[in-house]
Design goal:
This protein has 178 residues and is of the alpha+beta class. It has helices at residues 3-20, 41-47, 100-104; strands at 63-68, 71-76, 83-85, 109-110, 117-118, 124-128, 134-138, 141-142, 164-167, 173-174. It starts with a helix and ends with a strand.
Amino acid sequence: MNRLARAAAPVTFAAVLVLAGCGDTDTDTDSGAYDHGTMHTTDSARATESAPTTQDGTAGAALAVAGSELGDIVVDGRGMTVYIYDLDTPGSGTSACTGPCLAEWPPVTTDTPTPQVAGVGGQIGTIPGPDGTQQVTLNGWPLYSYVDDTAPGEVDGQGEGGVWWVLDAAGQKVTAEN
């Protein structure tokens, strides 16, 4: 092996290792079942990552604003899109999404009655959630995530069934289709 080839070999090997780490290795074979008290494997891995940086640079808030294909929208503390459900009654103090609905649309929960927000307009509150948790509300609407959104910025639940919607930074329903 000539001198140049010997010098380049470690660099080439390191580049291969770096590129190998960039591939998609998600082998989650989720059966579709979802217990609102737990997270999917991919969600568990995501929860251990650093908190997302929001539009205004604030990290770790219960709600924040982030860009998406639908514009600036409200996201949870992990950067995942939050949704409202048309069958809920704002300000009623209850959620209409129960039982099997919660398998697809887990509530956005908090451990404090005054969740921290970053860049989100509107009135923030909580209602009693499942299993003794507190579900976060925005302008009286209970908030949910969508089980099929697997990465920050995804809005796969937008318009689902004609009753699920993302919120803009002011806390207003976005009805544009993705």
